[in-house]
Amino acid sequence: MKGRMIVLDHIADREAAAYLVDGALDDVLIDDPELPRPGAIFRGICDRPIKGQGGMMLRLPEGGTAFLRHGKGLRPGQPLLVQVTGHAEDGKAVPVTDRVLFKSRYAIVTPGKPGVNVSRQIDDEARDDLLAIAHEVYDSPHGLILRSSCAGADPDEIADDILAMLSLADTVLADAEGTAPEALTEGDGPHTVAWREWHGAATVVTEPGGFEAHGVLDQLARLGHALVPLGEGMMYVEPTRALVAVDVNTGNDMSPAAALKTNLAAARALPRALRLRGLAGQISIDFVSMSKAHRRQVEQSLRAAFKADPIETSLVGWTPMGLFELQRKRERPPFPARLLKDI
Fold it and tell me: Is the pLDDT assigned to residue 185 strictly greater than 90?
């Protein structure tokens, strides 16, 4: 099957969305009702400062806890509007920020940062048209960013999206004060995130059973295995408590060029392998042994591959033992392997 397809379905009563490119699974989102969604907004109550780190622990509803990295000037008992920024590992507090954003498909409202801005990916002529749409409907002290998805979009849809985000921002900010922790928004589920983030021409399937009909379930089942076939050799992606270990092998190919070919294939495939499995944090890659000149080629390939990946990833570099290290933001929970029995 050629082309791009977005499939919206459910797995074991969990909302889920899959993005297919030429029939291959490129991204997947599966809701976890037990975890706060990234983007959810809470009124938290400052609990205790973390000395030496400059952070602050906050109390959330139902006994939850959150960690704000920059908590200078805050005092225990102070209410604070915070937004979930990612997934917390087991036993750790939910990571949050006090720089709350209201994000939709076309517009982002930024309280405390006034001004109207347009994505730099949009050409000058289109930028002028979008600014005219924004100034016609937007009158607020909050800032506004028009996203790259506005290019070619219907002006009325853009205007409606701007007004919807402004209304949500005003409603939430008006409820920021209080003496008890409270959930003010629940964050977007997979279907809404798919609409918000997966842009471009694509066939959208919403009928129940779409995952089975379009081969998504079979591809999800393979995510429970560490092996990632490369065509040029193979790669194993295995999470541990401390880090994600990636091992690259040439297989049976013993030719002089095998190491470079396999390592380049692994560099191209790694962002997708991590994205589908929901793996992040510290990542250590054991590439096939190669010359230092070839290392530069592999690093360039890694940078190009992760530049196109939507999840923030820092390429740290080579260790003295010849491993390559990455640091990846925890934006989503690991793939729920316990659901494999339901697939």
Answer: yes
Contact 170, 162 (CB under 8 A): no
DSSP secondary structure of 279-291: --EEEEEEPPP--
The whole-number pLDDT of residue 231 equals 85
Residues in the chain: 343
**pLDDT per residue as tens digits for the range 28-44:** 999 998 889 999 999 99
Residue 332: half-sphere exposure toward Cβ, Cα within 13 Å = 22
Average per-residue pLDDT for the chain: 93
**Sign for the pseudo-dihedral over CA of 260, 261, 263, 268:** positive
**Strand 244-249 with 281-286, pairing:** parallel
Rg (CA), the chain: 22
Query: Tell me: the pLDDT tens digits for 119-136?
Result: 999 998 899 999 999 999
As to burial, measured by CB atoms within 10 angstroms (0-12 exposed, 13-18 middle, 19+ buried), residue 272 is: middle
**Which among 97, 49, 94 has a CA at the least distance from the CA of 73?**
49
Model-level pTM greater than 0.85?
Answer: yes
With 0-12 / 13-18 / 19 or more C-beta atoms within 10 angstroms meaning exposed / middle / buried, residue 297 is middle
